[in-house]
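Cont'd.
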Amino acid sequence: MNAWVGKAVIGLIAFVLIGSAGDAYAHKPSDSYLSLQVDGPQIAGRWDIALRDLDYAIGLDANDDGTITWGEVRARHDAIAAYALARLSIGSEGDSCPPRAQEQLIDQHSDGAYTVLRFLAECSNQPRALDLRYRLFSDLDPQHKGLLRLEYRGRTQTGIFSHDHPETRIDLAGSTPLKQFLDFGREGIWHIWLGFDHLLFLLTLLLPAVLFRSQNRWRMVSEFRPALWDVVRIVSAFTVAHSITLSLATLSVIHLPSRWVESAIAASVVLAALNNLLPVVQGRRWVVAFGFGLIHGFGFASVLADLGLPQGAKVLALVGFNLGVEVGQLAVVAAFLPLAYGLRRSWVYERLVLVPGSVLIAMVASVWLVERVFNLKLLPL
Amino acid sequence: MRAGVAVLTLLCLAAWSPAATAKPFLPADDAQVLERLRTSAADPQARELRRLRAELAQNPGNLDLAVKLARRDIEQGRAEADPRFYGYAQAALGPWWNAPEPPPSVLILRATLRQSVHDFDGALADLDAVLRVQPSHPQAWLTRALIAQVRGDYPEARRSCAPLGRLSTRLVAATCRAGAASLNGEAARSFDFLRASLEAEPDADPQLRIWVLTVLAEMADRLGKVSEAETYFRQAMALGLRDSYLLGAYADSLLDQGRATEVVALLKDEIRADGLLLRLTLAEHVLHAPSLLEHVEALRARFEASRRRGDAVHKREEARFVLHLLGQPREALEFAKTNWAVQRESWDARLVLESALAAHDRSAAQPVVDWLTASKLEDVHLAQLVDALERGAREAKR
C-alpha cells in the first residue's frame, strides 16, 4: 500500500456508512415557514425561522454555553429582523413593497423553537401579481428551503423556495380581467346557493306559479305557457330590482346599515310566505318581487364588499358577480319549474308543497328575523 | 392493530388539546431556555469547524481548505444525524459545486451528498467521473459499491469492491466484499470470513472497527444469531464514538427481541433525529409509555413537514410509522412500495412484506418475494414473513 492510498484510507471510513439508511435517521432538515396575507396593497407577513439556523448565521448563543435563552434571542431581535428581511424581497411589476419588521414571538415546531417574525409590506398599488425573491441561508446551507403559504381572498397558494429556485411569481386571483370576471361570477353563483334567504324568497314567490286563484281557491294552470310567463315576470322583476340596488350600493351611491338590510330580507321572506297562505297580493306577485328585490340587492352588495373589490375593476367585478347571481337563479328556476308543473295536478302540490312549504318557510324566516333584529344566534343557518 | 386504533383515537383527541394547536407566545422570563445546541465553546469538534470556516472565509478560493471543511461537516452531520451539516458542506464546496468539471476531491463529496438525498444516479455519475481520471481511487470504488448494495444490485456491488483488494487495507476490502456477498447467497460464509478478517487486524482504527462491527452485527442478526449480534453491537457501542446508524440498528435488534425497556434507556435523549425518535416511540408503544402520544404527534408533524418541503427520503420510516404506530396497513403498503422502488435493503423488503401481510394483500408482496428468491437474500425475519404470507394464501384457498 503506497502512501497516497494510505492517506485516502484515513477518512474513508467516516464516509462509508452514509448509506441511505443513515440519512433516513436524520433530523428534519432546515426549513423556514413564510406566510403572507395579501389585503389590498398591504401584505401582512409571518416568518418562522429556526433559532438553530439563526444561531449558525448570526450567533444567538451569546455566552456560548450551548443553550439559547429568551434573553439572548430578545437581545438579537433587531439583528434577526435586519438579517432575514434583507434576504426577502417582495415586488409587484417593478413596484417594490419593502417589508418592515414588527414584533417577534416564539413558536415550538416539531423540531425545536422558532422565532416568529411578523412584518408588514406596503405596495404603492394593489398588486396583481407578486414577485418574491428568497435568499435566506442560501449562502450558508444550500439545502435550506423556504415554505411559502400565501393567502388572498380566502384562497391559499403554496410554494417552495430553495437555493436553486430562489424566485417565484404568484399570480393573485383575478390577475387578468377575464379571470377576475369569472371569479366574481363564480362567487355570485355560490352566493345564491349558500345565501339561503335569497333562494327561499325566490322559491316562495315561485311556488304558486303553476296555480291560479279563483273564487278563493287554488286551481292548476292548464298550460305550461302561462306558468312560464309568470315565472319569467317574477324572476326578471327580482333581477332588475336587486341589480339596481346592488350597483348603487357597490358604487357607494347609497349605503344602508347591514343589520337593517338583513332584517328586512328576513321579513320579505316571511311576508312572501304568508302571502301564499292568505293571499293578499295575487296576480301581481312580480311587483312584490321587484319591491323586495330592491332590499335583497343591498344584501348582495355586502357580500360583494366582503369579497374585497379590486381597485380599478369595480364595475367588471360588479357585472361578473351580478351575472353569476342570475346564472344561479336560473339554475334554480330550471330545476323548479318542470317539477312543479308535473306535480301540479295532484292534490299533493297544494296540500303537501304549497301550504306546508310556505308554513315552514315562514317559520324559518321568522326565526331569522328575530335573530337579525335582536342580533342573536338561534339557527345553524 | 387494536393498539393502533387506540393511538389514532387518542391522536384525534390530542389534536384538540392546546399543545397540538400551539400558538406563538411571548416567553415571560429572559432566562427561559428555548433551544439546546449540540455545540458549545467546550466542544472541540465545533471549535475546529468554526476555525476552518473562519479560515475558508479568509481564503474563499482555497480548494484544500474547502474540501477539509466539507469533509468535517459531513462527518459531523453523520455523527449527529443532522442534515444541516450536509448543507454546510455543500456551501463550503460552493465555488466548485456547479462547475462543468469539478476536481475529483469535490466530486467524491458531491456524490456522498447526492446519495444522501437518494439521488443515486447523480452520485454514481460523479463517482464514475472520478474513476475516469483516477481509476485507483479507493473511496470512489467503495462508495460505488455501497450505493449498488443499497439498490440491491449485488453483482455490481461485488465488482466495485474487487479493486479495493489492491487499493485499500485488507479489512476494508473484506468488509465491502462480505457485506455484499452476505446478501447474495453467501450469508454464513461471509460472516465467518469477516469475523476472521477482523480478528486478524486487532489494531484497526476505531472508525473502521465501528463499521466492521456494525456490519457483522447486522449479518448475525439476519442469520438469527441473536446473541452474537448482541455481542458485536455492544463492542461497537463500547468504542464510544457517536454513531446514529449504529444506535438505530441496535435499537431495531432489541425491538425484535421485545426488549423495549432497553430501547427506551438507549434512545431516551434521541428525540431530534427522526429515525431514532421513531424507534424510541415504537418502544414506548410496546410499553404504553406516557410520552407515546407526544412523540407520535411529533413524528406525524415531521413527516408532514418533510412532505411540504418536497422530500421523498423518509418513505421507509414513514411506512413503519404508519404501519406500527397508526395501524393503517393499506397506507403503509403504499409508502413501502414507493420506497422499494428506490432502495432495496433488508428493511425495505421487510416493510413491504409486513404491510402486505397486515393489509391481507398477498399480491402486493409478490414482487418482493420473487426478488428475494432471485437475489438469494437470507434473512430470518424476511423468511418468517414470507412463510406467514404463504400460510395466509393457503388458508384463503381452503
